[in-house]
């Protein structure tokens, strides 16, 4: 499966159209991440965590006279959007098609999900702890008339996966349908995703877990294949234990 000019043009055009808003989102995200370390943040503030961990308490703030409404706990990776060329290459490398359900953890402005659904017809799910990111992702999906196949949730994917996949979780049913996982996040977040990735990998539906640039530790994975040009790695297994044992 090779990329057509029309397909790449769409992804590149999407990147261009999002640039100004994306640059603004980067600033908002950075301010919120800094303020989360200094000001009051209600742990469990996002709706998925609230449903899974209803008894979570407030964390003590360093400054108690200011609250940034965009600040959240566990903002472990900066906002760094995927480049158009790599999104296009990823869709073709993993052979996404309309039968797939793509999960992007740390989805940012939603461009990967939107592009993937537009190019391949797949269903896409984006998770992010940042309220502004999820707000923009939903807006972009609506602009592209893809809101029926691109769903975005404000969610902390580092919490206990048993809670994320429990009956009380509003995203449990769709997570259990995932076939491909896309991860372009810093190692600080990646390593905390291993429990969820292991549980998702145990689901017979998941056929590919892919990282870009920043990769999972070798002792936690079985590498299936690698794309040197675009810095992709695809894993057949992710585990908390030593993958070689």
Structure summarized in a few sentences:
The chain is an alpha/beta fold and 245 residues long. The chain has helices spanning 5-38, 47-52, 84-93, 111-120, 131-143, 161-164, 172-175, 187-190, 194-201, and strands at residues 101-105, 123-128, 150-154, 180-183, 208-212, 221-227, 232-238. The protein has a seven-stranded mixed sheet with strand order 3-2-1-4-5-7-6.
Describe this structure as you would to a colleague.
- This protein starts with a helix and ends in a 7-residue tail after the last strand.
- It is α/β, with parallel strands linked by helices and 245 residues long.
- A seven-stranded mixed beta sheet has the order 3-2-1-4-5-7-6.
- It contains nine helices and seven strands; from the N terminus they run H-H-H-E-H-E-H-E-H-H-E-H-H-E-E-E.
- The longest helix is centred in the first third of the chain and has 34 residues, at 5-38.
